[in-house]
Each structure stands twice: as structure tokens, then as C-alpha cells.
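Protocol step 4 of 6: structure prediction from sequence.
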Amino acid sequence: MNNLPTELLSSIHLTLLPTPTSTDRIRYSNYYRSRINALTRIRLVSKQWNDAVLDTPELWSYIEIQVAKWLDTIRLSLKRSKAAPLHIRIDFGDTRPGIRDDMVQMVELVWSQADRWETFGCEGVARFPLRLLPLGPHPSLREVCIRGKQDTHTVDFQAPRLESLWEVTQLTNIETSGTPALRSWAVTYPTRRGEWERLIKIVENCSRLEWLRFLAHPGQSDEGLRTLEAWSVPDANNGIAFPSLKQIEFIPIPLTVNFLSYILAPNLQRLVIRGSIFSDLSTGFPAPPRLFEACPKLKFIRFDSEVLTWDIQRWLSALSQDLIERLEVEVERQREDRLGPVLITEQQNQLNSSIRIRWVYIES
């Protein structure tokens, strides 16, 4: 092994210690510690291995921050990462005064290197003087996942290279008008006028958006309002234009605005409907004929494993025969369910015989 070139050793180490995506981890607490320990053990193998690790800044560019982390370890990681793009993960927890000072110091350390961030993930409650995001531009940022909220002022997010944004929360106080390259966006389903106005504003500024996923909103909707016109949302009558959108996913939630009535997406190809114990597809989210007129390339509709076959039948039964012949319906099934051919045949028979069904098996 000592005969291997240093560049090859570095590549092997990077493969064995990959950088997880910002959406991979719900709580950032264990990977960083195990990664640092692994790098320490690798360095003890030989002088060549030690040199390879120290001369590979990318091995040190992944940094997690939480109250239990040591300030010196983070400072050392930043030093050894040199000029490599950084991958930052922060667990704010619920920072109380007794532990706030250490947290502020750790956050300020990585804040000072914000121009090097390539991916970023955070969760918890960011209380003053902490923020979910530092002020100022983020010229290198490509991927962000936010699982928290802040009780400070609004942040104007300027990230011209950002391609993926997950907002797994509500009321993040983040304006994303400065993200023109955004291609993938997951956001809680709007249930209030201000949230719809924010969505329309972001869509107007992100013409490259190709993938949109609506997440379940933790708040309650207003039962008396089922259209954007009722809120007097500007330009609601003209619909919401998605010039580049190819796939949209949502969990149907009752008594909210049916956004399917407003989508204008000439390149939309797939609609993904995810199940919920609150789902009522046929009454809460019927497929309006206007949807297929505004989305002429819409060919695939996928239902995940949580959507009951009976609900699929009711939802599709409202479509015309011409639309049924045009569509290909995909139904997910978890691989561990081990559905036998008899059960699959019975489920298929419950659906309209003219519907083309493709069973898609996924890992549980």
C-alpha cells in the first residue's frame, strides 16, 4: 500500500469518507466525530498515509456544529481544509443562555468562511444573536437544507449558484429572490396568503426550477378559503408559470387551495402524489381539466405506497377517456411488502382496465 501514489491514496480516503448530502441526516451529531476518529487512525498507519491525509484538504472540509462539539476541533478542521469548499452542518438545538456562548463562537468560526460553503444543513431554533444563515452573499453555495426556524429578522438569501433548497419547516424568515439557478426546491405547502405570495415571488425569480416538492404544513388551513382569488393574490387568475418544471410532488392535505388549478408548466412530465392519513384525493385535490391543458407534456402520474388503490381509482375516475389513454400510472410498492402476483392482480383489477399501470418497487 505504501507504493501507491499519494493522489490515489487521497482518492481512496475520500471514497471511504464521503460527504453526506444536507438532506441525509435529521440530526447532525455522530458522523463528524466518527469521521475525525477515522482520519486519526488512518494517519497512524504510516508516514505516507499521514502526509496524504494532511495534504488532502477535502478530507477536512466536512464540519458539524452542536453544543457538544469541541471548539478546537472545528478550528483545526477549518485550518486543515485550507481553501477547499466547505460542507457545514449545524444543530442549533434550543440554545439557552447557559450554553449560548460556546455555540456562538463555533458558529462565528464557520460564518467567517461563508464564501467557501458548498453545502449547508441546519436544524433547531436559532435565537439572537444566532441566525440560520449569515448575512451577505454565498457565492459558492449549491445545496441547502433547513430544518429549523429563527426568531430574528428576515435574511435576504443571495446565493447565485444555489441549485437545491429544502425548507423542512415553517416561518424561516428567508427571502430567496437571489437564487436564480435554483433547480430543486422542497417547501412546506402554503396555507396562508403570505406563503402563497412568497411562493409566487420565488417561482418568478427561479425560471430554471425543474423539481418541486410540497411538504406537509404543520399549521392549520382556513376552511373558508379554497382559491387564491379569495385571498386577492396578485395575478392568481393567470396561473403560476413554471417554464422549466419537470416534476412536482405533494401530499394532499384537505381544505387548502388546490394548486393543480393554477399550474402553468409546459415541460411538466411527472406528477407524484404521496399518501397521508388525511388524504382525500377526489374531493380535496381533484385533477382539473385545465391542468392537462396547461401541462401538455404531463404523461406520468405516480402514487406512492401510502396511497390506497381505492383512492387512486376515485381520483382517476374523474378524468376523461382521452386523458386516461394518454397517461401512464406508476404505483410504488415497498420491496419488503413481498406482494405476491395474486395480490397484485387483484389490485390491478380494482383500477380502470384501460389505465396502464407500472408497479415500481422501492426500498423500505
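Step 5 (inspection) to follow. Confidence is low (pLDDT under 50) at residues 338-350.
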